[in-house]
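Why should sequence recovery work at all? Because a backbone constrains its sequence more than one might expect. Tight turns favour small or flexible residues, buried strands favour hydrophobic ones, and helices have their own preferences. The token representation captures these environments compactly. In the example below, the structure is given first.
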């Protein structure tokens, strides 16, 4: 993600989330060296984005969104693959995130990436709890096999 992506990213953020990040938040986030942000496009137009922060050997997915008009196009899978590739490049061994308790589609996506539900954060969102999900040992050969299988499913 670059500053040129921010108008589209913030418009998607406002369209999708009840508590959207401001353009200033995105600007400060993409400037930080302990963060990584990616976009996915369709025919040159940004249709999704995701971000991650890094603390020691943990990678924490901070945000992910796909345009409602592009859902079911496997863009969430592509975003996760890009984030995990960056996490591995930076030496991460574990992956974590919070997801709305009602967001079954996202939870299924994260489950495909080997993430397990490990807890609940009460009132994490203004109007809802969050499910805490983790995947450990993402630097293992077993996890690499999982990623290869997911990639083959995208390309096959």
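From this structural description, the recovered sequence reads:
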């Amino acid at each position: 993600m670059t500053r040129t992506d921010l108008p589209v990213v913030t418009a998607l953020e406002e369209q999708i989330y009840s508590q959207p990040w401001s353009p200033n938040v995105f600007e400060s986030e993409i400037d930080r060296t302990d963060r990584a942000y990616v976009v996915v496009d369709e025919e040159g137009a940004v249709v999704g984005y995701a971000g991650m922060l890094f603390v020691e050997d943990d990678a924490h997915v901070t945000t992910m969104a796909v345009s409602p008009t592009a859902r079911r196009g496997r863009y969430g899978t592509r975003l996760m693959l890009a984030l995990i590739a960056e996490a591995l490049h930076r030496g991460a061994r574990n992956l974590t995130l919070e997801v709305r308790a009602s967001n079954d589609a996202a939870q299924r996506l994260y489950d495909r990436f080997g993430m397990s539900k490990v807890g609940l954060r009460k009132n994490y969102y203004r109007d809802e709890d969050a499910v805490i999900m983790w995947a450990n040992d993402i630097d293992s050969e077993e996890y690499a096999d999982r990623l290869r299988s997911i990639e083959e499913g995208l390309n096959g």
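A few observations help interpret the result. Residues 3-155 form a domain with the Aminopeptidase fold (CATH 3.40.630.30).
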